[in-house]
Amino acid sequence: MSDPTVQPVPTSVVEQVDAADITLSNPRWAVLSLGANLGNRLETLQGAIDALEDTPGVRVKAVSPVYETEPWGVEPGSQPSYFNAVVRLRTTLPPDSLLERAHAVEEAFDRVRDERWGPRTLDVDIVAYAEIVSDDPVLTLPHPRAHLRAFVLIPWHDIDPGAELPGHGPVAGLLERIDSSGVTARPDLELRLPE
Ligand SMILES: Nc1ncnc2c1ncn2[C@@H]1O[C@H](COP(=O)(O)OP(=O)(O)OP(=O)(O)O)[C@@H](O)[C@H]1O
Ligand SMILES: Nc1nc2c(c(=O)[nH]1)N=C(CO)CN2
């Protein structure tokens, strides 16, 4: 006879698997780009780094210097400047779970998605995830515009001078081909690697 004190778990609960809870057995590396051009930009970038570190299955291994950058892809002078940085992670989250987590961190910092390349409190993009190359529009790897963006490649090169962007080659070589003029180091500002 079944025990009447044991309540069955509703099927809907059993089936609700949060993608960010799925893990791989071997950690992989990933590089994320962080950007902010509204609100307290430095505080937000640090908060995003700390939130990523607080994610089960994510360890932040390196944090780049901070750059102040002209908004890319929009009319000059139409938006406030960005603070940008990149982080390098080790993660047991598969790519789709990492993207889901990136979106959750953006939302925690009140990210509003209205216009493409519009101003934002926080942008978290997956620049690269291990050597994966994919043209899936939900998660394109590497990020489809990373090879064109000095605000991504300069800080990545700072923390990993030998880095390669899968499908594109060494970051150092990509940097020789793009305009880096709108990207200014801010050595007076610092982001902390979580302990
Ligand atoms: N590598 C990636 N990293 C983050 N988002 C991606 C990636 N590839 C595809 N996407 C998709 O792009 C969608 C739009 O992302 P987002 O709003 O961050 O774009 P954006 O920051 O305005 O512009 P950009 O994509 O040029 O950085 C996301 O919902 C996501 O599904
Ligand atoms: N300077 C700068 N420009 C941008 C940035 C960014 O992070 N920095 N992000 C964008 C959309 O991801 C569009 N333009």
From TrEMBL:
Pfam families assigned to the protein according to its UniProt record, in alphabetical order: HPPK
Annotated protein name in UniProt: 2-amino-4-hydroxy-6-hydroxymethyldihydropteridine diphosphokinase
CDD domains: HPPK
Reaction(s) this enzyme catalyzes, per UniProt: 6-hydroxymethyl-7,8-dihydropterin + ATP = (7,8-dihydropterin-6-yl)methyl diphosphate + AMP + H(+)
EC class name: transferase
SUPFAM superfamilies associated with the record: 6-hydroxymethyl-7,8-dihydropterin pyrophosphokinase, HPPK (SSF55083)
Family matches, as PANTHER family: 2-AMINO-4-HYDROXY-6-HYDROXYMETHYLDIHYDROPTERIDINE PYROPHOSPHOKINASE
EC id: 2.7.6.3
NCBIfam families, per database record: folK
Organism ancestry: Bacteria, Bacillati, Actinomycetota, Actinomycetes, Kitasatosporales
Keywords on record: ATP-binding, Folate biosynthesis, Kinase, Nucleotide-binding, Transferase
Molecular-function annotations in GO: 2-amino-4-hydroxy-6-hydroxymethyldihydropteridine diphosphokinase activity; ATP binding; kinase activity
An annotated GO BP: tetrahydrofolate biosynthetic process
Pathway: Cofactor biosynthesis; tetrahydrofolate biosynthesis; 2-amino-4-hydroxy-6-hydroxymethyl-7,8-dihydropteridine diphosphate from 7,8-dihydroneopterin triphosphate: step 4/4
Tree of life domain: Bacteria
